[in-house]
Amino acid sequence: MFHCACRQEGIDIIFHLSKSFLKDKISFHYFRTLDELLVLSQRYHLDLVIIAGKSEFMKEIEMVRLMKDHIFLSIIPTVLYHPEPSEAELIAGFDNGVDSFLHGEWKERLFEAELRMIAERSRRDISVNPSTWLPGPGLIEREIERLLKIGNDFGVCYADIDDFKAYNDYYGYYYGDRVIRLTARIIRDVVFDLCREGFVGHIGGDDFIFILPPDQVGLACENVIKTFDTLIQFRYSDEDRQRGIIHTRNRKGEMESFSFLTLSIAVLVNQKGNFEHVGEMSHMLADLKKYSKSLKGSNYVVERRKKY
Hints:
Blueprint: E1 2-9, H1 13-20, E2 26-30, H2 34-43, E3 48-53, H3 58-68, E4 78-82, H4 87-95, E5 100-103, H5 108-126, H6 137-150, E6 154-162, H7 164-171, H8 173-194, E7 199-204, E8 207-212, H9 214-232, H10 238-243, E9 245-249, E10 255-259, E11 262-270, H11 278-294, E12 299-303
Parallel strand pairs: 1-2, 1-3, 3-4, 4-5, 11-12
Antiparallel strand pairs: 6-8, 6-11, 7-8, 9-10
């Protein structure tokens, strides 16, 4: 279901949208105030907000400004429509953050294509991790589903930084984020050097996914680990690097010594269609990751069993 919130003054925008999206399941939700829009956004997953008017348009543009100033509403793609806006109104619309300003006679197929593109781009952008600019969980799941559907053989590698919480607590979030971005860059560079059609995603925190053909998984994991182990030592102070450990509290609140960060990678290979669903692979990867993290030092472990 496509959910569209609409505000209209002196023009029936719903009539036009209903014709443009005739073949789709679309639900229209009316609002007049920012509070009403906020309630709608909490009740539904809004794909689009369209604000339309025919005469004086500055109230509509002010609504856009209020939306973009709101931390939650600002991520919803917003479109203005006016049949004959002035140049000042067009400029003011974009200055206040509108994603698109449709104007002139309603062009069903052209405006439909643009609205679909805006909504799809928003879904894609929201699925990208803001720290690493890698695809997030939604796009990771979509890519694995795509590969399963077309029947390709592929290896899914689940990388996790060991004892990252201790490092983050010790050095602080700024330096922790630099480690996350370094790890993302290492994985991305290694994977795409080996395979232009590879995939790299960021689940969140210190967890990453990368996907390659089965025959390239081993080399990719080895190169990722080798590069990570070489560079990670330079994310420590000179004193800590010479000592080889840091002292900070563990999850139990007790003081503990932690060696340099290491990387554990759990690998699951789909061959000859032995997996049918993302959930099957996710479950096995979670179990395998626990085992790989129990081993000392950076390592990768390949699951040899079929699904269970």
